[in-house]
Design brief:
mainly alpha; 95% helix
């Protein structure tokens, strides 16, 4: 059970880091994202 908790915690930390990276990218190049997306 403890290992499962540790795994979930690690995954959530990785997701948090990924979200922060995406937010930073969105802030830095939002116009480019729009141009590429559409």
């Amino acid at each position: 059970m403890q290992t499962l908790k540790n795994k979930a915690f690690r995954v959530s930390v990785q997701l948090n880091a990924l979200v922060r990276k995406l937010l930073a990218l969105a802030r830095g190049g939002f116009k480019w994202v729009i141009l590429i997306a559409f």
